[in-house]
Design brief:
By secondary structure, this protein is mainly alpha-helical. 73% of the residues lie in helices and 0% in strands. The protein folds into 2 domains: 113 residues; 136 residues, Histone Acetyltransferase, Chain A. It has 10 helices and no strands. InterPro entries: Bromodomain, Bromodomain-like_sf. This is Bromo domain-containing protein.
Length: 281
Amino acid sequence: MERMIRSIRGSRNVGTGNIEVDNSEMEVFCGCIDRMFSKVNEFEQRVDAVERYYADNKELNTAKCSSILKDKIKKKHLMTVEKQQQDSEKLTQDLMRQFAAIFRQITQHKWAWPFLEPVDVEGLCLHDYYEVIEKPMDFSTIKNRMEAKDGTGYKNVREIYADVRLVFKNAMKYNDERDDVHVMARTLLEKFEEKWLPLLPKVAEEEKRREKEQTATQVATKLAEEASYANMAQDLSNELHGVDMQLERIREMVVRNSRFVQQPMFSFLLYNFELNFYWFR
């Protein structure tokens, strides 16, 4: 392309016996070529991005649905996702409230006092505690996380359930079966499991709903991405149509100036112009 522009600019004086090309008009022509060259490079990158996307998502090219039907499907998916998110959030909040009631009952039990705060490892001289217990847990830590508003809180009741069990499992693991703390932990764990059991069907329902929500969200995200690239392709098509018209005007300019340029040079310019641009149409 740059070679072609240099050739055009160098053709203003075409030699003895030929008329000198109008410099101002030739400069306009070369300026148009420069701008079109930059625009073509930009379009090429954008077209490559769209082609790569559709090459990686071949099913989008072979879809039998019309564009109108696709739009209806997208809207339906978005409405479904929104409805599922609302239902899931409501169910999660309801489960959190029910679990909070169970948690209060366990923590208020007369045998819950050894588990209310973190184990005082140094005060009790439990030098091997961290060698035996991988993840210490206590009720105050659980309560603080249940009440957290900074994004560090529990996402669902299954996570809280696991930490409550961990409190008792740690105590049973570190202390001998005959120790009071071991007996207290085992007893409270049994009571906790009894209270958890009626809640389990709702928890399973929440988890199933959450799984569907995640799937629907992924589909909605995919549809949004498809719509974005479809819009990009449409914009490119419109812009390329405009470029095509500009290229035709430039070609007419080349032909119009052909009377000022000797025939071999004119043929060379026209050939280079079409070689560099007309593949893009």
